[in-house]
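Q: Hi! Curious about what Squalene cyclase C-terminal domain-containing protein looks like structurally. Here's the sequence.
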Amino acid sequence: MNVRRSAAALAAIGVLAAAAPATAAGASPSPKASAPAGLFGTADPTYDGVWRQSLALLAQHTVGYKPGAQAVGWLVGQQCDKGGFAAFRADTAKPCEGKGGAQPDTNSTAAAVQALQALGGHGTEVRKALVWLSTLQNKDGGWGYTPGSPSDTNSTSVVVGAFAAVGQDPGKLRLGKGSPYDLLRAQALDCTADGGGALAYQPDKKGKLVANADATAAGVLGALGKGFVVRPGTARDKAPACTAAGKATPVRLADNAAAYLAGAVARTGHLKSALPGAKDQPDYGNTADTVVALAADGWTAQAKKPYAWLEKNAATWARQSGPAAYAQLILAAHAVGADPRDFGGTDLVQALNKLGPAPRQAAKPAAGSRAEKSDGDSGSRVWWIVGSCVVVVAGLGLLLGGRRKKRQP
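A: Let's find out. The predicted structure is below.
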């Protein structure tokens, strides 16, 4: 779900969140903000308000609930004038990006797009957000966490998920020399390297790529052109041979990365935290993301072991961490076809619903999770002109009034 996203990292700076942008871990602490009405959870939303709200709404929708109007309205109200979303705007009357204003970021914006597109009825907000995101694509084809920052695997992947939510082919997103797939390919470790097949978050100071499980899970979804909500891919009988990173198609990049993840959880069923001082501590959030990534690439059998481990061990983590954690676990259950209402004796859906405005009604569970499954999609194509670049967006009819039942992680 994007490092986007290290709950442990956020907890380390006093924020109990399950899946928020990784870059937030290095952010300077700011005065605590109280949780406003309409927002899921009671923890300080400074670093993850929009992120956790987006995941919570998306999880509710995925299991067939219609999120409360107040919760949806809070998220819509967080959008900046130019279309981006910041992690949290304490004062929505104050313009973004100016002196003292909230600074929009790609991760919060892409997460909000996926949630609002899935819910339907927010075409104007979705379109503005995607236009804003399109102007921030780096020449290498990727996105960084903030405007102007170097591309990273996680940010690029969550943005790919946002465009894929409206039917846009990520390979056609080329505002510079490369596409998002070119960036992911550049971040992939070659088969013969230590951690071969995995993706790095970014090259280190010496330009070396170091395997990063969180970035790898995000990269699987990015390479497959998927967002946070997935259904299992075609089951595999055996792992395909690793393909050299420089020659790998997006699908083979995903295969390489999924193979790395499968190996990483094969023995214990979980990933370990990479935080300093957290030796041998399990990483619940990234393990949940790994379940989703494996299922998305058809590694259904391999996804079952980490999911079973989560069922036995993650309920306490979710209670301590809050709505985004519950949402991650719900999306993991959805990815492997499990019942999130019976998660090792915990009803994840009920627990999430208690942390925010009550859903307006229980609806029929969503039948599919792919963006192309929609009602009201006119199938039309339009061109967005952004500066001197052209972005092709499929099915904008749905953005301007049509409704898709869901977008897919």
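A: A fun detail: The beta strands are 65-66, 85-86, 104-105, 271-272, 282-283, 361-362, 374-375, 381-386, 389-394, 403-404.
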